[in-house]
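In the laboratory, one determines a bound structure by crystallizing the protein with its ligand and collecting diffraction data. In a computational setting the workflow is compressed into a single prediction: the sequence and the ligand go in, and a structural description comes out. We illustrate the idea with NAP.
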Amino acid sequence: MNENIFKALVVSENDDQTFTRKVADRFLEDLPEGEVLIRVHYSSLNYKDGLSSIGNRGVTRNYPHTPGIDASGEVAESSDSKFMPGDRVLVTGYDLGMNTSGGFGQYIRVPADWVVPLPEGLSLKESMIFGTAGFTAALSVNALQNHGITPEQGEIVVTGSTGGVGSISVLLLSNLGYDVVASTGKSSETDFLKGLGAKEIIARDVVNDESKKPLLKQRWAAGIDTVGDTTLATLLKSTKQRGAVATTGNVASANLPITVYPFILRGVSLLGIDSGQTPMNLRCQIWNKLASEWKFPQFKKLSTDCDLDNLEPEIEKIIAGHQRGRVVVNLQ
Ligand SMILES: NC(=O)c1ccc[n+]([C@@H]2O[C@H](COP(=O)([O-])OP(=O)(O)OC[C@H]3O[C@@H](n4cnc5c(N)ncnc54)[C@H](OP(=O)(O)O)[C@@H]3O)[C@@H](O)[C@H]2O)c1
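The predicted complex, in structure-token form:
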């Protein structure tokens, strides 16, 4: 057997501009340059991977391509003295899985600056149950705390709450003592969200005001939004004086139809979350929290397991907005 061959999901562009996904053999020498070669044990599925898998040029410019913005595994080779073969590490974000061959392959080669030593207290698999989604949820909660939002101030709303970022946000906030109101399009998932600690479940429409009113009745102390557009605008317009909303995503759209009034009349803050480019010191702090005081036991119930051969239906589900929790991909 040629040891330079490994298995990966390969997305290819067809002559008619459609895209095909298949599991194929790839060669180590075709991986990009970088100081650290990692034998991937686990990856996870994020919304961005869905976009890369269907040919979204905003995520991935050139095909054929192997998606996967997350990976955890063991260092196979390193030309950087910070890492040794056998070290257990994880990589999330930066350019991984976008225009750099990603975690849906058994090997990745990346710059040493992208590599996080696996924090003590997390297994390689557990780190991918969190993955980018959990890391982003934790960054969002951290940002709200740094803004001074405390449980006594009132309810926190989370949108897209059955998805990856949403479900882990619900879990973290409720375990930290906040009253969480979970907004979802999936009325069948009430028990799932209650199990994560949500105090109340509301339908998506409740936080999607299309009236164009500049301000709405104040309800939320804070929010975490994954949806964008009129949903994010609704949250901002209905956040209480000096509250804050962390914006993480744009599953509805990247638009934000709003006036300045929530900001200049109520002192509401919009907190931007950019997990991909998080500086290494904050990155390690947040991963260490997820490995210790924020490692609440229910997080293990969030994940579905799959391997490369049965990833396809999971990709279709995440693109359709039908995923629940997290999908961990086993590449061993
Ligand atoms: N800023 C960052 O660093 C960062 C990091 C990670 C993810 N993101 C972004 O955050 C978003 C969520 O990512 P994810 O990985 O958590 O995705 P996900 O697991 O697919 O979750 C998205 C959830 O949003 C809801 N949703 C889907 N389509 C919707 C629509 N048209 N209108 C309203 N709600 C809809 C669904 O939940 P319900 O059915 O419960 O409503 C869905 O499960 C994406 O836009 C992603 O790109 C950003």
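Residues 46-48, 132-133, 136, 160-166, 184-186, 204, 226-227, 248-252, 273-276, 318, 321, 323 surround NAP (CB under 6 Å). Keep in mind that any predicted model is a hypothesis to be tested, not a measurement.
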